[in-house]
Amino acid sequence: MANVTLVVCGGIAAYKACEVMRGLQKAGCDVRVAMTQDATRFVGEATFRALSHHEVVTSLYGMHETAIPHVEAADFADLVLVVPATANVMAKLACGIADDAATATILAAHSDVLVAPAMNVNMWRNPATQANVALLRERGIRFVMPASGELACGYVGEGKLAPVEDIVAAALDLLGKAEGVGDAEGKGTGEKDAALAGKNIVVTAGPTHEAIDPVRYIANASTGKMGYAIAREAACRGAHVTLVSGPTALEAPEDVRRVDVVSAAQMHEAALAAFEGADAAICAAAVADYTPKAPADHKLKKTAERLDRIELVETADILRDLSARKGGRVVVGFAAETDDLLAHARQKIARKGCDLIVANDVSRADSTFGSDTDRVAFVYPDRVEQMETLPLERVAAELLDRLGTLLGEVR
């Protein structure tokens, strides 16, 4: 059983720390809690005591179990996890200040420290905060970077606490507890990867919209989550990433160049152009196989122009055309199937000529479009590696581990 000391700071996202704790406990972790005094104004000490079944460290003094609670909490931990990390606490850590139980626990830590910041967008963007984050990363502290979106203060932008499942997945990855991990050297925590650092990688993501008329289109249920997770993880590993994205509601990952497209034809053009200077391509997008032959230039009225038949033509095959141009480079495709998953994936890799197919059964609730998990199989020309159900971030990490191996083989 892995031990986690959860440090909770005083921000509106403090209540999310309860959900993080439950996620870790479900994975078999023993979790103890240290809190700043400000954190107790958002979530009561009694809540964490009840959830953890341990005394909560809120002061350097007066605990029944030990006279040195911050050292005890640090010694207990295989991982110290800070959720949410405020700008103030990160500034203290950068300066080595330990003036309360929470910061003293972090300073006394001799295990990995994982920090999940959350704050107002302007506080996050402030040069002082960014300098503190950079300094802490140089010292080996890991981060689950904040998301963009509508904040509790009413602003919109970066600073929103990362999704609970992302924080739990990153913590479990550091603890080596994620199910289905191929080997102990798997990445997935934003660490630089010698196999990918400096490489140029093209990732396609999301659906395409094929116009019937100016207001109607043919599409599918893809959300783009998988492709965006891959792009984010590749950038964290030091790759230069071009993300060719169909229409989605997702924010572009940090340090990723996003090229927005709508149709399959536009994605084909953008992907081939980006691949000219790339080392690898990962085709995670769910591209429409067919498009209307003659889309109308005006909204069709059902009273005069009934839509009882639409003539379709095949779209250009992005995966096949990239594979035909790859030479010594690596191309990875995806296969979303509802039946005979492995048989269809084997046929696809032979037909397209790519190096690897990531096959997932979208008829499963834990592996369908829009899910935060996937149960994939990595299908090579000569073998199959079946994974268990994993968070999308872990699937991305596993895929990029394999991409690094493939890039090494074609040097």
Automatic annotation (TrEMBL):
<dbReference type="InterPro" id="IPR036551">
    <property type="entry name" value="Flavin_trans-like"/>
</dbReference>
<keyword id="KW-0288">FMN</keyword>
<dbReference type="GO" id="GO:0010181">
    <property type="term" value="F:FMN binding"/>
</dbReference>
<keyword id="KW-0210">Decarboxylase</keyword>
<feature type="binding site">
    <location>
        <position position="299"/>
    </location>
    <ligand>
        <name>CTP</name>
    </ligand>
</feature>
<comment type="function">
    <text>Catalyzes two steps in the biosynthesis of coenzyme A. In the first step cysteine is conjugated to 4'-phosphopantothenate to form 4-phosphopantothenoylcysteine, in the latter compound is decarboxylated to form 4'-phosphopantotheine.</text>
</comment>
<dbReference type="GO" id="GO:0004632">
    <property type="term" value="F:phosphopantothenate--cysteine ligase activity"/>
</dbReference>
<dbReference type="GO" id="GO:0015937">
    <property type="term" value="P:coenzyme A biosynthetic process"/>
</dbReference>
<feature type="binding site">
    <location>
        <position position="352"/>
    </location>
    <ligand>
        <name>CTP</name>
    </ligand>
</feature>
<keyword id="KW-0285">Flavoprotein</keyword>
<feature type="domain" description="Flavoprotein">
    <location>
        <begin position="3"/>
        <end position="174"/>
    </location>
</feature>
<dbReference type="InterPro" id="IPR005252">
    <property type="entry name" value="CoaBC"/>
</dbReference>
<comment type="pathway">
    <text>Cofactor biosynthesis; coenzyme A biosynthesis; CoA from (R)-pantothenate: step 3/5.</text>
</comment>
<dbReference type="GO" id="GO:0071513">
    <property type="term" value="C:phosphopantothenoylcysteine decarboxylase complex"/>
</dbReference>
<comment type="similarity">
    <text>In the C-terminal section; belongs to the PPC synthetase family.</text>
</comment>
<protein>
    <recommendedName>
        <fullName>Coenzyme A biosynthesis bifunctional protein CoaBC</fullName>
        <ecNumber>4.1.1.36</ecNumber>
        <ecNumber>6.3.2.5</ecNumber>
    </recommendedName>
</protein>
<dbReference type="Pfam" id="PF04127">
    <property type="entry name" value="DFP"/>
</dbReference>
<comment type="pathway">
    <text>Cofactor biosynthesis; coenzyme A biosynthesis; CoA from (R)-pantothenate: step 2/5.</text>
</comment>
<dbReference type="Pfam" id="PF02441">
    <property type="entry name" value="Flavoprotein"/>
</dbReference>
<keyword id="KW-0460">Magnesium</keyword>
<dbReference type="GO" id="GO:0046872">
    <property type="term" value="F:metal ion binding"/>
</dbReference>
<dbReference type="GO" id="GO:0015941">
    <property type="term" value="P:pantothenate catabolic process"/>
</dbReference>
<feature type="domain" description="DNA/pantothenate metabolism flavoprotein C-terminal">
    <location>
        <begin position="196"/>
        <end position="403"/>
    </location>
</feature>
<comment type="similarity">
    <text>In the N-terminal section; belongs to the HFCD (homo-oligomeric flavin containing Cys decarboxylase) superfamily.</text>
</comment>
<feature type="binding site">
    <location>
        <position position="334"/>
    </location>
    <ligand>
        <name>CTP</name>
    </ligand>
</feature>
<keyword id="KW-0436">Ligase</keyword>
<dbReference type="InterPro" id="IPR007085">
    <property type="entry name" value="DNA/pantothenate-metab_flavo_C"/>
</dbReference>
<feature type="region of interest" description="Phosphopantothenoylcysteine decarboxylase">
    <location>
        <begin position="1"/>
        <end position="200"/>
    </location>
</feature>
<feature type="region of interest" description="Phosphopantothenate--cysteine ligase">
    <location>
        <begin position="201"/>
        <end position="411"/>
    </location>
</feature>
<feature type="active site" description="Proton donor">
    <location>
        <position position="153"/>
    </location>
</feature>
<keyword id="KW-0479">Metal-binding</keyword>
<dbReference type="InterPro" id="IPR003382">
    <property type="entry name" value="Flavoprotein"/>
</dbReference>
<dbReference type="InterPro" id="IPR035929">
    <property type="entry name" value="CoaB-like_sf"/>
</dbReference>
<dbReference type="GO" id="GO:0004633">
    <property type="term" value="F:phosphopantothenoylcysteine decarboxylase activity"/>
</dbReference>
<keyword id="KW-0456">Lyase</keyword>
<feature type="binding site">
    <location>
        <position position="289"/>
    </location>
    <ligand>
        <name>CTP</name>
    </ligand>
</feature>
<feature type="binding site">
    <location>
        <position position="348"/>
    </location>
    <ligand>
        <name>CTP</name>
    </ligand>
</feature>
<comment type="function">
    <text>Catalyzes two sequential steps in the biosynthesis of coenzyme A. In the first step cysteine is conjugated to 4'-phosphopantothenate to form 4-phosphopantothenoylcysteine. In the second step the latter compound is decarboxylated to form 4'-phosphopantotheine.</text>
</comment>
<keyword id="KW-0511">Multifunctional enzyme</keyword>
